[in-house]
Amino acid sequence: MVVLIRCNGIITDPRAMKYVTYLKETGQDYILIGWDRDGGIQDSERAFYYHHKAGYNVGGVKAVINRVGWMAFVVKTLKSLHLKGFAIHACDLDAVYPAVIYNKIVSRSRKARILFDVFDWFSATLFEQPKPVLCAFKHMEHVSVNNSNLIVICEPERIEQIPYRISKEKISVFPNIPYFSETSFLVKKKEFGFDNDLFTFSYVGGFVQSRCINEIITLAEHGMVNLLIAGFGDTQIEERLTSLKNHLHIKYFGRVKYMDGLNIMYNSDVIYAMYSKVNPNHIYAAPNKYYESMFLGKPIFSTKGTIVEKKVISNKTGYVSEESVSDIKNVISSITRDSIIEYGENAHRLWIEKYGSYTSDWLNNEYRAFINDCN
Description:
Blueprint: E1 2-5, H1 14-25, E2 30-36, E3 47-51, H2 60-81, E4 87-91, H3 93-105, E5 113-117, H4 131-146, E6 150-153, E7 171-173, E8 200-207, H5 213-221, E9 226-233, H6 235-243, E10 250-252, H7 258-266, E11 270-272, H8 280-283, H9 288-296, E12 300-303, H10 307-315, E13 318-321, H11 325-334, H12 337-355, H13 358-372
Parallel strand pairs: 1-2, 1-4, 2-3, 4-5, 5-6, 6-7, 8-9, 8-11, 9-10, 11-12, 12-13
Helix pairs in contact: 2-3, 3-4, 9-12
Protein backbone atom coordinates (compact mmCIF):
# COMPACT_ATOMS: atom_id res chain seq x y z
CA MET A 1 0.00 0.00 0.00
CA VAL A 2 1.23 3.48 -0.94
CA VAL A 3 -0.24 6.68 0.50
CA LEU A 4 0.72 9.57 -1.78
CA ILE A 5 0.41 13.01 -0.21
CA ARG A 6 0.56 16.34 -2.07
CA CYS A 7 -0.76 19.73 -0.94
CA ASN A 8 -2.77 20.38 -4.10
CA GLY A 9 -5.47 18.68 -6.15
CA ILE A 10 -2.92 16.10 -7.44
CA ILE A 11 -4.61 15.50 -10.81
CA THR A 12 -3.14 18.73 -12.22
CA ASP A 13 0.35 17.97 -10.90
CA PRO A 14 2.47 16.28 -13.63
CA ARG A 15 5.08 14.76 -11.32
CA ALA A 16 2.52 13.43 -8.85
CA MET A 17 0.39 12.00 -11.67
CA LYS A 18 3.34 10.02 -13.02
CA TYR A 19 3.36 8.08 -9.79
CA VAL A 20 -0.42 7.69 -9.76
CA THR A 21 -0.34 6.39 -13.32
CA TYR A 22 2.38 3.90 -12.44
CA LEU A 23 0.53 2.68 -9.34
CA LYS A 24 -2.62 2.16 -11.41
CA GLU A 25 -0.84 0.38 -14.26
CA THR A 26 0.98 -2.01 -11.92
CA GLY A 27 -2.06 -2.80 -9.79
CA GLN A 28 -0.64 -1.35 -6.58
CA ASP A 29 -2.97 -0.44 -3.73
CA TYR A 30 -2.80 3.28 -3.15
CA ILE A 31 -4.53 6.17 -1.41
CA LEU A 32 -4.23 9.86 -2.22
CA ILE A 33 -4.30 12.68 0.30
CA GLY A 34 -4.54 16.13 -1.29
CA TRP A 35 -5.68 19.70 -0.78
CA ASP A 36 -8.80 20.91 -2.57
CA ARG A 37 -7.84 24.58 -2.68
CA ASP A 38 -10.48 25.72 -5.17
CA GLY A 39 -13.44 23.63 -4.04
CA GLY A 40 -15.28 21.07 -6.12
CA ILE A 41 -13.10 17.95 -5.79
CA GLN A 42 -14.97 15.00 -4.33
CA ASP A 43 -13.50 12.47 -1.93
CA SER A 44 -13.55 8.81 -2.94
CA GLU A 45 -12.49 5.42 -1.60
CA ARG A 46 -8.94 6.15 -2.78
CA ALA A 47 -8.73 9.92 -2.30
CA PHE A 48 -9.19 12.19 0.70
CA TYR A 49 -8.99 15.96 0.37
CA TYR A 50 -8.54 18.86 2.73
CA HIS A 51 -11.50 20.98 1.66
CA HIS A 52 -10.24 24.41 2.57
CA LYS A 53 -10.12 27.18 -0.01
CA ALA A 54 -6.73 28.84 -0.34
CA GLY A 55 -4.63 30.49 -3.00
CA TYR A 56 -1.31 29.34 -4.41
CA ASN A 57 2.04 31.00 -3.64
CA VAL A 58 0.49 33.07 -0.85
CA GLY A 59 2.63 34.18 2.09
CA GLY A 60 2.00 35.76 5.47
CA VAL A 61 0.30 34.66 8.67
CA LYS A 62 -2.78 33.37 6.83
CA ALA A 63 -0.63 31.01 4.76
CA VAL A 64 1.03 29.67 7.92
CA ILE A 65 -2.37 29.04 9.51
CA ASN A 66 -3.58 27.30 6.34
CA ARG A 67 -0.55 25.00 6.29
CA VAL A 68 -0.91 24.11 9.95
CA GLY A 69 -4.52 23.16 9.25
CA TRP A 70 -3.43 21.10 6.25
CA MET A 71 -0.77 19.24 8.22
CA ALA A 72 -3.23 18.49 11.02
CA PHE A 73 -5.59 17.07 8.40
CA VAL A 74 -2.84 14.82 7.01
CA VAL A 75 -1.99 13.41 10.44
CA LYS A 76 -5.66 12.88 11.28
CA THR A 77 -6.34 11.15 7.94
CA LEU A 78 -3.31 8.86 8.23
CA LYS A 79 -4.41 7.79 11.72
CA SER A 80 -7.96 7.11 10.53
CA LEU A 81 -6.75 4.69 7.82
CA HIS A 82 -5.39 2.18 10.40
CA LEU A 83 -2.79 0.89 7.95
CA LYS A 84 0.13 -1.44 8.64
CA GLY A 85 3.19 -2.24 6.52
CA PHE A 86 2.75 0.63 4.09
CA ALA A 87 4.70 3.40 2.36
CA ILE A 88 4.09 7.12 2.57
CA HIS A 89 5.12 8.96 -0.57
CA ALA A 90 5.33 12.56 0.61
CA CYS A 91 5.54 15.13 -2.17
CA ASP A 92 7.47 18.00 -0.63
CA LEU A 93 8.00 19.36 2.86
CA ASP A 94 4.42 20.17 3.81
CA ALA A 95 3.56 16.54 3.08
CA VAL A 96 6.56 14.82 4.64
CA TYR A 97 6.59 16.72 7.95
CA PRO A 98 3.08 15.59 9.01
CA ALA A 99 4.02 12.09 7.84
CA VAL A 100 6.97 12.17 10.23
CA ILE A 101 4.70 13.43 13.02
CA TYR A 102 2.33 10.55 12.31
CA ASN A 103 5.18 8.05 12.65
CA LYS A 104 6.18 9.62 15.97
CA ILE A 105 2.76 9.21 17.57
CA VAL A 106 1.58 5.77 16.42
CA SER A 107 2.60 2.32 17.58
CA ARG A 108 5.52 0.51 15.95
CA SER A 109 3.22 -1.80 13.97
CA ARG A 110 1.48 1.16 12.31
CA LYS A 111 4.58 3.13 11.33
CA ALA A 112 5.25 3.68 7.64
CA ARG A 113 8.39 3.86 5.54
CA ILE A 114 8.65 7.41 4.25
CA LEU A 115 9.78 8.58 0.83
CA PHE A 116 10.51 12.32 0.86
CA ASP A 117 10.10 13.50 -2.74
CA VAL A 118 11.70 16.97 -2.91
CA PHE A 119 9.52 18.74 -5.46
CA ASP A 120 11.03 22.02 -4.19
CA TRP A 121 13.55 22.61 -1.43
CA PHE A 122 11.05 24.44 0.69
CA SER A 123 13.02 26.85 2.88
CA ALA A 124 14.80 28.16 -0.23
CA THR A 125 11.45 29.38 -1.53
CA LEU A 126 10.82 31.32 1.70
CA PHE A 127 13.79 33.68 1.47
CA GLU A 128 11.50 36.72 1.81
CA GLN A 129 9.63 35.43 4.87
CA PRO A 130 10.28 36.69 8.43
CA LYS A 131 13.15 34.98 10.22
CA PRO A 132 10.91 33.03 12.69
CA VAL A 133 8.96 31.51 9.78
CA LEU A 134 12.16 30.62 7.91
CA CYS A 135 13.70 29.07 11.03
CA ALA A 136 10.56 27.00 11.62
CA PHE A 137 10.68 25.58 8.11
CA LYS A 138 14.40 24.85 8.35
CA HIS A 139 13.67 22.89 11.52
CA MET A 140 10.92 20.99 9.69
CA GLU A 141 13.33 20.18 6.87
CA HIS A 142 15.97 18.90 9.26
CA VAL A 143 13.51 16.68 11.11
CA SER A 144 12.00 15.40 7.85
CA VAL A 145 15.36 14.57 6.27
CA ASN A 146 16.54 12.68 9.35
CA ASN A 147 13.32 10.67 9.61
CA SER A 148 12.79 9.74 5.96
CA ASN A 149 13.92 6.41 4.54
CA LEU A 150 14.52 7.67 1.01
CA ILE A 151 14.99 11.19 -0.36
CA VAL A 152 14.23 11.73 -4.04
CA ILE A 153 15.59 14.82 -5.79
CA CYS A 154 14.94 16.09 -9.32
CA GLU A 155 18.54 16.71 -10.39
CA PRO A 156 21.92 15.63 -8.98
CA GLU A 157 22.89 19.31 -8.61
CA ARG A 158 20.17 19.69 -5.98
CA ILE A 159 22.32 17.80 -3.50
CA GLU A 160 24.07 21.17 -3.06
CA GLN A 161 20.84 22.55 -1.56
CA ILE A 162 20.73 20.01 1.24
CA PRO A 163 22.62 21.47 4.23
CA TYR A 164 22.51 18.22 6.22
CA ARG A 165 24.77 15.20 6.17
CA ILE A 166 22.98 12.39 4.30
CA SER A 167 24.38 9.07 3.11
CA LYS A 168 24.45 8.57 -0.66
CA GLU A 169 22.40 5.40 -0.26
CA LYS A 170 19.52 7.48 1.06
CA ILE A 171 19.32 9.73 -2.04
CA SER A 172 17.84 8.89 -5.43
CA VAL A 173 17.62 11.10 -8.52
CA PHE A 174 14.41 11.12 -10.53
CA PRO A 175 14.15 14.03 -13.00
CA ASN A 176 10.87 15.60 -14.14
CA ILE A 177 10.66 13.43 -17.23
CA PRO A 178 7.33 12.75 -19.03
CA TYR A 179 5.88 9.27 -18.70
CA PHE A 180 4.21 8.27 -21.96
CA SER A 181 4.50 5.14 -24.07
CA GLU A 182 2.82 6.68 -27.15
CA THR A 183 2.39 10.10 -28.74
CA SER A 184 -0.85 9.84 -30.72
CA PHE A 185 -2.41 12.59 -28.58
CA LEU A 186 0.04 15.11 -30.06
CA VAL A 187 -1.62 16.69 -33.08
CA LYS A 188 -1.38 19.98 -34.92
CA LYS A 189 -4.58 22.00 -34.49
CA LYS A 190 -5.82 25.14 -36.20
CA GLU A 191 -7.05 26.55 -32.90
CA PHE A 192 -3.41 26.95 -31.82
CA GLY A 193 -2.36 28.76 -34.98
CA PHE A 194 -1.89 32.48 -35.70
CA ASP A 195 -2.41 34.39 -38.94
CA ASN A 196 1.14 35.75 -39.13
CA ASP A 197 4.76 34.65 -39.54
CA LEU A 198 5.97 35.35 -36.00
CA PHE A 199 7.52 32.60 -33.90
CA THR A 200 5.04 31.06 -31.46
CA PHE A 201 6.12 30.65 -27.84
CA SER A 202 4.24 28.52 -25.32
CA TYR A 203 4.00 28.52 -21.55
CA VAL A 204 1.97 25.93 -19.65
CA GLY A 205 2.21 25.81 -15.87
CA GLY A 206 1.80 27.71 -12.64
CA PHE A 207 1.45 31.48 -12.73
CA VAL A 208 3.87 33.15 -10.34
CA GLN A 209 5.49 36.57 -10.54
CA SER A 210 8.98 35.05 -10.32
CA ARG A 211 8.75 33.11 -13.58
CA CYS A 212 9.13 36.08 -16.00
CA ILE A 213 5.62 35.40 -17.31
CA ASN A 214 4.63 39.05 -17.46
CA GLU A 215 7.70 39.72 -19.59
CA ILE A 216 6.74 37.28 -22.34
CA ILE A 217 3.12 38.50 -22.20
CA THR A 218 4.38 42.05 -22.73
CA LEU A 219 6.46 41.01 -25.74
CA ALA A 220 3.48 39.17 -27.25
CA GLU A 221 1.24 42.14 -26.52
CA HIS A 222 3.67 44.34 -28.50
CA GLY A 223 3.72 41.93 -31.46
CA MET A 224 7.20 40.50 -30.88
CA VAL A 225 6.00 36.87 -30.70
CA ASN A 226 2.84 34.82 -30.64
CA LEU A 227 2.02 33.27 -27.27
CA LEU A 228 0.07 30.14 -26.39
CA ILE A 229 -0.37 30.16 -22.62
CA ALA A 230 -2.25 27.99 -20.14
CA GLY A 231 -2.20 27.65 -16.38
CA PHE A 232 -3.36 29.21 -13.15
CA GLY A 233 -2.10 30.74 -9.93
CA ASP A 234 -1.28 34.43 -9.52
CA THR A 235 -4.56 36.34 -9.88
CA GLN A 236 -2.92 39.41 -11.42
CA ILE A 237 -1.49 37.32 -14.23
CA GLU A 238 -4.81 35.52 -14.72
CA GLU A 239 -6.70 38.82 -14.88
CA ARG A 240 -4.18 40.31 -17.29
CA LEU A 241 -4.50 37.35 -19.65
CA THR A 242 -8.29 37.40 -19.42
CA SER A 243 -8.25 41.05 -20.48
CA LEU A 244 -6.13 40.10 -23.50
CA LYS A 245 -8.34 37.21 -24.64
CA ASN A 246 -9.05 38.87 -28.01
CA HIS A 247 -5.46 39.89 -28.70
CA LEU A 248 -4.08 38.92 -32.12
CA HIS A 249 -0.89 37.44 -30.69
CA ILE A 250 -2.09 35.78 -27.47
CA LYS A 251 -4.24 32.71 -26.85
CA TYR A 252 -5.02 31.96 -23.22
CA PHE A 253 -6.55 28.58 -22.30
CA GLY A 254 -6.80 28.81 -18.50
CA ARG A 255 -6.30 25.63 -16.52
CA VAL A 256 -5.80 22.54 -18.71
CA LYS A 257 -5.13 18.84 -18.25
CA TYR A 258 -1.52 17.70 -18.55
CA MET A 259 -1.86 16.02 -21.95
CA ASP A 260 -3.71 19.04 -23.33
CA GLY A 261 -0.89 21.23 -22.04
CA LEU A 262 1.67 19.08 -23.84
CA ASN A 263 -0.36 19.42 -27.02
CA ILE A 264 -0.36 23.21 -26.66
CA MET A 265 3.44 23.17 -26.39
CA TYR A 266 3.67 20.77 -29.34
CA ASN A 267 1.89 23.37 -31.45
CA SER A 268 4.45 26.07 -30.62
CA ASP A 269 7.92 26.77 -31.96
CA VAL A 270 9.65 27.43 -28.63
CA ILE A 271 8.82 26.33 -25.07
CA TYR A 272 9.21 29.14 -22.53
CA ALA A 273 10.64 28.19 -19.11
CA MET A 274 12.14 31.24 -17.46
CA TYR A 275 12.96 31.65 -13.77
CA SER A 276 13.93 34.52 -11.49
CA LYS A 277 17.27 34.08 -9.73
CA VAL A 278 16.04 36.34 -6.92
CA ASN A 279 14.55 33.10 -5.60
CA PRO A 280 17.56 30.91 -4.64
CA ASN A 281 15.53 27.79 -5.36
CA HIS A 282 15.17 28.76 -9.02
CA ILE A 283 18.90 28.49 -9.63
CA TYR A 284 18.50 24.75 -9.06
CA ALA A 285 15.15 24.50 -10.83
CA ALA A 286 14.48 21.27 -12.68
CA PRO A 287 11.45 22.21 -14.76
CA ASN A 288 9.19 19.66 -16.39
CA LYS A 289 9.53 21.78 -19.51
CA TYR A 290 13.22 20.97 -19.95
CA TYR A 291 12.41 17.29 -20.42
CA GLU A 292 9.08 17.96 -22.11
CA SER A 293 10.93 19.97 -24.74
CA MET A 294 12.99 16.85 -25.53
CA PHE A 295 9.90 14.66 -25.61
CA LEU A 296 8.16 17.11 -27.97
CA GLY A 297 11.25 17.88 -30.07
CA LYS A 298 11.07 21.61 -29.34
CA PRO A 299 13.77 24.11 -28.30
CA ILE A 300 13.49 25.62 -24.83
CA PHE A 301 13.93 29.23 -23.73
CA SER A 302 15.29 29.56 -20.19
CA THR A 303 17.36 31.64 -17.77
CA LYS A 304 21.08 32.33 -17.60
CA GLY A 305 22.81 31.40 -14.37
CA THR A 306 20.78 28.26 -13.64
CA ILE A 307 21.49 24.55 -13.94
CA VAL A 308 19.06 24.52 -16.86
CA GLU A 309 21.31 26.95 -18.75
CA LYS A 310 24.24 24.57 -18.46
CA LYS A 311 22.19 21.70 -19.84
CA VAL A 312 20.70 23.77 -22.68
CA ILE A 313 24.05 25.20 -23.79
CA SER A 314 26.00 21.93 -23.56
CA ASN A 315 23.36 20.01 -25.49
CA LYS A 316 22.46 22.83 -27.93
CA THR A 317 18.75 22.46 -27.26
CA GLY A 318 17.57 26.04 -26.91
CA TYR A 319 18.12 29.64 -25.88
CA VAL A 320 19.00 31.40 -22.62
CA SER A 321 18.51 34.98 -21.50
CA GLU A 322 18.75 37.29 -18.55
CA GLU A 323 15.41 38.17 -16.99
CA SER A 324 14.46 41.67 -18.18
CA VAL A 325 12.09 42.38 -21.05
CA SER A 326 14.91 43.97 -23.05
CA ASP A 327 17.23 40.97 -22.54
CA ILE A 328 14.52 38.49 -23.51
CA LYS A 329 13.63 40.64 -26.53
CA ASN A 330 17.26 40.73 -27.71
CA VAL A 331 17.60 36.95 -27.55
CA ILE A 332 14.30 36.44 -29.36
CA SER A 333 15.51 38.82 -32.09
CA SER A 334 18.44 36.49 -32.71
CA ILE A 335 16.31 33.37 -33.18
CA THR A 336 16.13 31.92 -36.69
CA ARG A 337 13.94 29.25 -38.20
CA ASP A 338 17.04 27.12 -38.86
CA SER A 339 18.11 27.28 -35.20
CA ILE A 340 14.61 26.27 -34.08
CA ILE A 341 14.78 23.20 -36.30
CA GLU A 342 18.35 22.35 -35.24
CA TYR A 343 17.74 22.72 -31.49
CA GLY A 344 14.46 20.84 -31.72
CA GLU A 345 16.17 17.93 -33.47
CA ASN A 346 18.96 17.92 -30.89
CA ALA A 347 16.41 17.87 -28.09
CA HIS A 348 14.47 14.94 -29.54
CA ARG A 349 17.68 13.01 -30.26
CA LEU A 350 18.66 13.39 -26.61
CA TRP A 351 15.21 12.12 -25.60
CA ILE A 352 15.57 9.00 -27.73
CA GLU A 353 19.15 8.25 -26.69
CA LYS A 354 19.01 9.02 -22.96
CA TYR A 355 15.67 9.92 -21.43
CA GLY A 356 12.92 8.05 -23.27
CA SER A 357 13.06 5.00 -20.97
CA TYR A 358 14.44 6.72 -17.86
CA THR A 359 11.09 7.14 -16.12
CA SER A 360 9.88 3.58 -16.61
CA ASP A 361 13.31 2.19 -15.61
CA TRP A 362 13.38 4.22 -12.38
CA LEU A 363 9.79 3.40 -11.46
CA ASN A 364 10.18 -0.30 -12.18
CA ASN A 365 13.42 -0.57 -10.23
CA GLU A 366 14.08 1.98 -7.47
CA TYR A 367 10.48 2.97 -6.79
CA ARG A 368 9.14 -0.60 -6.91
CA ALA A 369 11.96 -1.73 -4.60
CA PHE A 370 10.99 0.92 -2.04
CA ILE A 371 7.34 -0.13 -2.17
CA ASN A 372 8.20 -3.82 -1.87
CA ASP A 373 10.34 -3.17 1.21
CA CYS A 374 7.18 -2.03 2.97
CA ASN A 375 5.23 -5.22 2.33
